[in-house]
Structure formats: structure tokens, C-alpha cells
Amino acid sequence: MRVKRQKRQRRAVRFFTTCFGFRQPFKVLCDGTFIHHLLIHDIAPADKALADVLGGTTKLFTTSCVIGELEHLSLETHKKNRKKIGSQDAADQNSSAIGNPYFESFKAARKLAVARCDHEKRIGAEACIMEVIGDENPYHFFVATQDADMRKNLQQKPAVPLLFGLHKALLLEPPSAFQKEFAAASEEKRLHMTKLEHKLLKKRMDKDLVAGRLNDGDSSDKEATEISPASENLEKHSLRQHGKQKVDHGRKGLGVSDKPKFKRKKAKAPNPLSCKKKKTRAHEDGAKAKVDKDHSETLRSRSRNRIRKRLRKGKTAAETDS
Asked: Where would I find the H helices in 43-98?
């Protein structure tokens, strides 16, 4: 049962955050009955207990009228207790906490943050909270109260989530039928144009039509003055181009793209680590020069070979020279 209850409460919180813009930290407006219930059932710390219910951080608020009402109840209870007890010691007579449960509630309420209510004279706590909430709950308060009539009245307001205590458990009421209908109607209203938006759109369309007619008139005057053998073909081509430009301009003015633009993939270079290294130019030139040098040396050695002269028999070297 506890898991189902948590799911139901989280669903209700999601409804108010989505439809009415509630955000963390959630602001909880407490009345005197709720503060009194927290103290009687020893639900402390209260902000942590409420955070477990709402699923987010919370901040507790009250109003000066609620604090004044608790103070008044504390004094009234103290007077009744003095009449019942009769004569007491001086210390007991000065103490307002003896037999007075509202005194602790009054002290706890003074520690909470105070929401502005602008009441010079104190009024009832219920009337004060109803005035702070207003018709649309502009400050996004969660209202925590033990007053059933007050919760019933607040269910007829669109954006007011309600909290109450049941013994040691704190519960969040699901959205009422009125609140669900209001959220659906507001969502449907957002889908359609307002009167002001419709008027602005009509004005813009009329302005574009007038500008289009003027452009058409200027182009026809220019084409009438031109004289050429291929004027008819040029005229058709220019009208087509002009029509395309007009349509494109209109669609761009509305912020609508004609076609989705995709980024083309370009051919990527191969992985340099997987490629064979190229031979350098200097190395090739050096090898070629070495081959040429060897070839030239062989040619020189062949040209230097001389034919050896042989001496004939019976002739000396002097005769041969002569």
C-alpha cells in the first residue's frame, strides 16, 4: 500500500509541475491546524517529512494572521486553565505553557518564513490564506491544512495542491476534477491562435501580397521595353525564376526550411601507419648518379688500352724508329 501511495503522490506532483509550473524548492503554506497536528504527532523535522512526500526540497511558510490566531488560542487556553486550577505558585501563574498545547504551536509557527498578506488588522487564518492564494496561486504554494471545509473550497481553484496529515502520515490530495478540466482546456487553448496573433498574421499576409504585386508590375514594365528575338523564352524563364524566389522568400520568412540539409561525407585519406613509405627523390638521384659514374669509368678504361708494337726479327729498335 505504501508503494502505491507514493506512486499516486508522485503522479500528482508531476501533474502540477507540468501543467502549472511548480518548481523546487516547493513552497508549503501551513495554517495553524497543520502546525498543531505536526507537534501533537511528533512529526519532526517537518521539512524532511514533506520532502519525502513531494519528492523534492521544501520550504515552509505561514502568515502573520495564522501566527496571531495561534497566539490568541494560546492565551485563551491559558486563561481557561487558570480558572480551572485556581490559586498557583507565582512561577506557575506566569508560565503560559502549562497545560496549553497551542503555546508550542505558536512558538513553532514563529520560526517559519512569513508570507506577505498585507493585513493591518488580524483576520481569520482561512480568509487570510484564501486571499494569499487568490484565483491563480501566483506564488505556487502547496497549502497544508487539517480543515476539511477549507480544502473543499480550494479544490475549486485551478492550481492549488493540498496537503493534510492522517495520524503520523502526510498525504497529498490528487488533483480534483475541476483542476484536470482546467488543465485540459488551457492545453487546448494553447494549440490555437489568439485574436491578436490572428490579426498580426493577417496584417503580415496583406503586406506581403502588396509587395508581391508591386514586384510583378515592375518586372512586366521592364520586359515590355526589351526587344530581342528570344524575348518570349527569356520572359518565361524569368517568371519561373521569380516565382521560385518568391516562394523561397515566403517560406524563409516563416522560418520553414524547404528540404532538410544533410552534411555530405567526403572521402577520407588512408591511414598513414598502414601505408608503405615512399622512396625519397634524393636517394633515387644518388643511385642513378652512381650507375652513370661506373659506366663512364668503364668506357675510359677501354679507350686507354693501346696496341703493343712488336719488333721484327733482325731489326733493332733504332731502325724501327727511323
From this structure: 46-54, 64-85, 90-94
Read off the pTM.
Answer: 0.58
CA-atom Rg of the chain in angstroms: 50
Least confident of 21-25, 167-171, 188-192, 255-259: 255-259
The per-residue pLDDT for range 29-61, each reduced to its tens digit, is: 999 999 999 999 999 899 999 999 999 999 999
Closest of 49, 275, 52, 23 to residue 168, by C-alpha:
49
Phi, psi of 230 (to 5 degrees): -105, 35
The answer to whether the bond into 25 is cis (omega within 30° of 0) is yes
Q: Cα separation of 9 and 7, whole Å? A: 5
Contacts of 100 (CB under 8 A, 6+ apart): 74, 77, 78, 81
Ordered by start, the domain boundaries in the chain are: 1-84+100-185
**Measured between alpha carbons, how far is residue 67 from residues 111, 118, 197, 204 in Å?**
10, 14, 47, 57
Q: Which CATH class is domain 1-84+100-185?
A: alpha beta
Strand-by-strand arrangement of the 141-144 sheet: 113-115, 58-63, 26-30, 141-144, 162-166, 169-172
Mean pLDDT of 226-241: 53
SS3 content of the chain, % helix, strand, coil (to 5): 60, 10, 35
> Which band of pLDDT confidence, cut at 50, 70 and 90, is reported for residue 250?
very low
Residue linked to cell 488560542: 73
* 31 touches 126 (CB < 8 A): yes
Reply yes or no on whether the pLDDT at 146 is more than 90.
yes
